[in-house]
Amino acid sequence: MRTIALALLLLFSACIQEEKPLLLVDYAHGEIFPPLDPRDLGYAKLDTVFKEAGYEVRVISEPLTEKELRRARVYLLAGPMNELSEEERAAVRSFVEHGGRVIVLVHIASPLREFLEEYNITLGWVLAEEENTLDRVHDFVVTGIEGGEIFEDVDSLSFHGAFSVRAPESYAFTSDRAWEDLNLNGVWEEGEPRGRFALIGIARYGKGYVLVIGDDATLANRFIGEEDNFKLARNLAEWGLTQSSPSNSSAPRSRR
Fold first, then answer.
1. Neighbour-count burial of 214, counting CB atoms closer than 10 A to its CB (0-12 exposed, 13-18 middle, 19+ buried)
2. What is the C-alpha separation between 46 and 37, in angstroms, rounded?
3. Staple 208 to which of 59, 96, 193, 238, CB 3.0 to 4.6 Å?
4. 151: which DSSP letter?
């Protein structure tokens, strides 16, 4: 009996030691870029980055609950087309307040506005650029990025149809000649806000953080290899494993 008890104790100890931090990927709110999908607009490469950093990756396709979030280290909400319910938002609030980290990637702004306002984060509109453009004015590269550990070795990022982000801490700025293209015609017109806009925002809430990237394409399979997008993904995975502030660095921070 003693031998059996010892064997069970060793097995239990091994299970505890082998438990991995969890990345919980939302797929319950109409997301059109599917997780674990190797096609151009899937997130298989991003998921692999987290797995290689030591995470277990789990996809949730049912309404979110506190129980589902309880063991998660990071919750990824990538491109939702439908709003989170009041109960789901409460579950996320509790998760963040107790030290959880949320990464939000924006496809359209409307399903996220009410959710993000709880963390003092607001979304503007789709940005257009006159500098560092790619195929069109809505696709461009942002350079000169500064910040903490999340942006280590990240000098440039590419965006494809990104929304502006206003947050307590703001990063990844356009040039001064960018504008919010309210009618999406690719031409600046009178009345369209013009200036320098951030594409990444971070807010602290309780012991945790909410991080928003104004574009869900930046980390999709097709674009994650552009510029330093992959380095950003790798840094995000590492950030989720630490207890430090995302801006814990001697480097100056870009603020709006």
1. buried
2. 10
3. 96
4. G
Tally of residues, the chain: 256
CATH number belonging to the domain at 20-239, selected among 1.10.645.10, 2.40.70.10, 3.40.50.880, 3.40.1190.20: 3.40.50.880
Q: Tokens 């396709």 appear where?
A: 61
- State both tokens at 43: 């997130």
Share of the chain above pLDDT 70, in %: 88
104-141: burial string, b at 16+ Cβ within 10 Å, e else:
bbbbbbebbeebbeebebbbbbbbbbeebeeeebbbbb
Indicate the domain borders of the chain.
Answer: 20-239
Question: Residue 22 has what pLDDT?
Answer: 98
**Residue type, position 119, single letter:** Y
Q: At 144, is the pLDDT very low, low, confident or very high (cuts 50, 70, 90)? A: confident
Residues forming beta bridges with residue 57, ordered by sequence position: 23
* One-letter identity of residue 246: P
Query: Mean of the per-residue pLDDT values for the chain?
Result: 91
Q: What is the DSSP string of 16-66?
A: HHHPPPEEEEE-SS--SS-TT--STTS-HHHHHHHHHTT-EEEEE-S---H
- Has residue 156 got a pLDDT over 50? yes
Band of residue 36 on the pLDDT scale cut at 50, 70, 90: very high
